[in-house]
Structures are given as structure tokens and as C-alpha cells.
Amino acid sequence: MKKRRTRLCLLLFFLKCCIISKICICHARFGIDFLERGKNLVEDSTTISRFPSCFPEDFEERLLPKDLPDIELSPVYRVCTTKDITKRTFLSTYEEDLLNPNRKRHSLDDPSTFGTTVFMTLESVNNVLKCLTRHYPAPYIILGKVLSDLGPAQKTYERTQLKKDKDHVDWWLYTNADPSYLFNKYEPESDNKEK
Predict the structure, then answer these.
(1) What pLDDT was estimated at residue 20?
(2) pLDDT for 152-183, tens place per residue?
(3) Per-10-residue mean pLDDT for the chain, 195 residues long?
(4) N or C: which end of the chain has fewer CB within 10 A?
């Protein structure tokens, strides 16, 4: 029985590695070269990209909302699914989709897909936390602020006019942006404190 379980674990590990090797993983966020459908997508050293190279080539021209003002939003909340608050905590929805093959795919025509989600209210982030608790071992809420210096941001409602988006913010982080220093683990007594 133990041998069978070990073989099964090894087989599952092998299958997971095979699946991951076929998925585009943003090397700009992790410093890892990546492959997508057999094509090498590593940028040459003369190319400078404002956004992760796994994004569509025309992302900035076609999908990113135009003329976004510089904004600073505080406090904002996000669900952290990583053990510590790091750069990886702030992957875009698209990057998360690529890393998690079993995850629901999001529309490639929706600018929100390429943004990092934060919420302006605790109520909204708590709803997301309840959902993610089923998929991650110990997710928790983090509290911080959005700065346009790290990438353009927009209150989603301004673009969609949908009631469900009234507390949602899209933050399109630049390739080398690491907002982890702006966030801390949310503690209920810190709700009224500004970071």
C-alpha cells in the first residue's frame, strides 16, 4: 500500500511538472525563462517592457485604459495566498491563471484579467477570502495602499459601471514593481490606522 501511494505521488508530481512546463510563466516577475507552446518568449536584453512579457504584445495599446490619472488609494485590502507578503503575492489574475492550470480562465479581452486586484472595503475582500479558503491552505487579508508609481490603477466601477465592481480596484503593476513593502497582514484593530 505504501509503495503504491509513493508511486502515485511520484506520478502526480511528474504530471504536474509536465503541465507547468507547458504554461507561460512570467520570467519578468520570477527571473525564470519560460516557454509557451514551444516558443521561447524570453526578451532579448535590448527590449524593455513596462508590463510582464507574458501579457499580449498589444496589451498596453488595446486593453490598458488610456489617460489614467496618478492615484494613491489607502486603505486597500487583498487576499494573500502566499506564506509571506512578497512580490509573488501581487501576481495579476492572468499570471495566476497561467500558474494554476485547474483555475477558471478569465477573458483575454477584459483589462481586469491583467490587473492585480485590491478592494476598498473589508466586506468585499472577506467574500473573496471565503472563496479562496477552499483552494489555499491558509489565505489571509493584507492591508496597504496603491501607488501609481508602481503601475497604473483604476477603480473598476469607473470603467464598467457595474454595481458588483464598486469596491474593486485594478492595479496593472509594472514588470519590476514590488508593492510588498506597502502591505501588512490585516489585524482587526488596525482597520482605522493608515499605513
Answers:
(1) 39
(2) 999 998 888 888 878 999 999 999 999 999 99
(3) 52 43 37 32 44 91 92 95 94 90 83 94 90 85 96 91 86 94 88 51
(4) N
* Entry pTM: 0.71
Tell me the three-class secondary structure of the chain, residue by residue: CHHHHHHHHHHHHHHHHHHHHCCCCCHHHHCCCCEECCEECCCCCCCCCCCCCCCCCCHHHHHCCCCCCCCEEEEEEEEECCCCCCHHHHCCHHHHHHHCCCCCCCCCCCHHHHCEEEECCHHHHHHHHHHHCCCCCCCEEEEEEEEHHHCCEEEHHHHHCCHHHCCEEEECCCCCCCHHHHCEECCHHHCCCCC
Which residue in this structure is represented by grid cell 501607488? 147
